[in-house]
Amino acid sequence: MFKIVDRYVLRQILVPLGSALLISLLMLLAGRMLGFLDVTLGKKNSFTAVFKMLAYLTPNYLGLAVPAALYLGILFAFNRMSKTHEVEAMLASGIGLNRLFRPVLLLSGVLMFCNLVAIGWMQPYGRYAYRSVIYSLTNVEVFDLAKEGIFMKAGNRTFIVDHLNQSENKFDHLFIFQDSGMAKGSETITANTGRLINANGQTAPVLRMETSKRLRLDAYPDYSASQLQQNAITADIASADFPLEQVAANVFRPRGTDERELTVWELFKRQNDPPSGSSLNLMQAELHNRILKIIAIPMLAILALPFALSRGRNPDAYRFGIAVLLLVAFNVVIEQGTIATSLSGVSPWLSMWGPFMGYAGFALMRFWSACFKLQAENTSPLSDLVSWLTEKVRWRAEA
Fold this sequence. Notes:
alpha+beta, 2 domains, 11 helices, six-stranded antiparallel beta sheet
């Protein structure tokens, strides 16, 4: 059962944890938002598409932000309680650090389960949905990009309209030029009016043009020949339908063409049967990377506690710097191990689990020293080195 001290410790951690989680997510998503604006600029409902893509990628960033936020939350909370001597007061009352750490372990378990859901299931489905939005944006039919009086190019088509009403899908004074290459020639169409209609049973809309003219070249003329061939076809058309090359979003490919669109359970089942867009090495790297991101949460919580404790008159202000460097180094090492496994086929037990076990052993050793040993804990030999350098600088200044 929760006691007062458990609730108090959790309250102290949740505030910095929530702040760190919010700030890290905003920073990660803001960087992607600029790229999304470039993709969606000029398209219909561009801002809606941007926020959709950000929402779909949020589970992916939660896998990075949640462990870091918990790590920083423990650092700030226990450091504050240590500086205000609350930790000493609890120790004097018979509540040890290991007892204070119980609610932290419980919180770590809850966050580990949340990360399992986010990374294991929500992330692959979110990535697939994100790719489907990108697909629908890049395969949008050309007239969604139209602006009055401006030449626009989409694929092999160049077009311009004088007046348009996008709410009713109507156009006035159209010019369309389609270049099919030297062998297939080109086609030029002009029309007084036009409108988009949805044809039954087709995924692409049709442009219906009224009072139009058509110029068709079956092939580009060969100017090196002694006599030019007449291959132009012209026609006046009262009404004509012009199909547009649009693929609807609901015919986007099925999920699971590569390892990042598979859930943890699907990765485990298909380790030896990778999809067409993946390989055995990529499947192994992705599976072990996700598992490590999930189980690293309690390990990072144990690692953070000793660095958060202040030691009276000698607080060792550089502890936070060392703790943050260890967190960054851990993520870099795991990511480099993932790359080594995916590209070179190095065993994940060596490239990823080896560094993880080293970090876990170091974290448990320092946690045991902080909770169950009476001698003063320091970050030796680094603490001794910093103290020695400080004394040398002070001696030189006094001399």
